[in-house]
């Protein structure tokens, strides 16, 4: 069974005239696979990521997460899966500047209702994984750009998701820090996490196990060259 299985997903935004952002998407992502989705601005990448992340619902089609039909599951179940099964990483780290590194992660664990006595251990092990334990008491605003993105990844993995969805995760980073981010995604994939990255960056497309190109709401074969 695939981690993610999408069949015939369409998404039409109500507008005058309606916008067909996705026009029949089929996609399987296996556990431990690193998939890059590339495409020009307006191709439908964010729309697809929002649907995969249960932030938006498809107009039609099927979306199975670990075999469970979730595309139009009830709101409570979608909320639960979004917080428990999926880790999000965005271009902007969304680190809370006035909270410490520990607090930035603790808030996520509180949202996920992880028991209090487990939180410190989870925080430490995810910070160890991203190489940020030494900054545990630093306020977010004092972190460098690369450190902030490592904290964003720690926040995505502290809840031990089975899927990571990343939107231009290296967009604000220099090549060295980008490599750190990709290395962290590698480690997650090696533990069986499915990693899906939306990107304009051809280095990421080359890094991934597989890259697909989205064009006007459909996949087309081959990788787009900018
Ligand atoms: P990408 O992420 O590849 O730039 P998007 O998924 O953001 O593409 O957008 C795909 C298409 O859907 C674009 O034509 C965009 O203008 C349109 N679109 C996105 N969101 C909305 C919305 N909320 N309402 C109407 N049209 C939208």
Structure notes:
- The structure is a single chain.
- The chain is α/β, with parallel strands linked by helices.
- It has helices at 45-52, 75-84, 101-111, 116-130, 145-157, 175-190, 202-207, and strands spanning 4-13, 19-29, 34-38, 60-65, 68-69, 86-89, 163-167, 194-199, 210-215, 218-220.
- The strands form 2 sheets. It has a 6-stranded mixed beta sheet, sandwiched between helices.
- A hairpin with a 2-residue loop joins β9 and β10 (218-220).
- The protein is globular and about 50 Å long.
- The relative contact order is 0.21.
- It binds adenosine-5'-diphosphate.
- The site of adenosine-5'-diphosphate (ADP) has 12 residues, from β2 and α1.
Fold topology:
Blueprint: E1 4-13, E2 19-29, E3 34-38, H1 45-52, E4 60-65, E5 68-69, H2 75-84, E6 86-89, H3 101-111, H4 116-130, H5 145-157, E7 163-167, H6 175-190, E8 194-199, H7 202-207, E9 210-215, E10 218-220
Parallel strand pairs: 3-8, 3-9, 6-7, 7-8
Antiparallel strand pairs: 1-2, 1-4, 4-5, 9-10
Helix pairs in contact: 3-4, 4-5, 5-6
Bound molecules: adenosine-5'-diphosphate.
């Amino acid at each position: 069974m695939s981690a993610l299985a999408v069949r015939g997903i369409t998404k039409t935004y109500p507008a005058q005239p309606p916008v067909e952002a996705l026009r029949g998407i089929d996609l399987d992502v296996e556990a431990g696979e690193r998939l890059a989705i590339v495409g020009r601005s307006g191709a439908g990448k964010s729309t697809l990521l929002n649907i995969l992340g249960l932030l938006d619902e498809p107009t039609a089609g099927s979306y199975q997460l670990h075999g469970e039909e979730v595309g139009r599951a009830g709101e409570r179940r979608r909320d639960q899966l979004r917080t428990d099964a999926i880790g999000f990483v965005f271009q902007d780290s969304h680190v809370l500047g006035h909270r410490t590194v520990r607090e930035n992660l603790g808030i996520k664990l509180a949202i996920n209702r992880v028991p209090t006595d487990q939180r410190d251990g989870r925080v430490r092990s995810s910070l160890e994984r991203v190489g940020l334990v030494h900054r545990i008491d630093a306020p977010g605003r004092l972190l460098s750009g690369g450190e902030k993105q490592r904290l964003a990844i720690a926040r995505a993995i502290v809840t031990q998701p089975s899927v990571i969805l990343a939107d231009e995760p290296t967009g604000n980073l220099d090549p060295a820090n980008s490599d750190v981010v990709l290395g962290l995604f590698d480690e997650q994939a090696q533990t069986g996490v499915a990693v899906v990255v939306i990107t304009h960056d051809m280095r990421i497309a080359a890094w991934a196990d597989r890259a697909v190109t989205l064009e006007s709401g459909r996949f087309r074969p081959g990788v787009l060259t900018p």
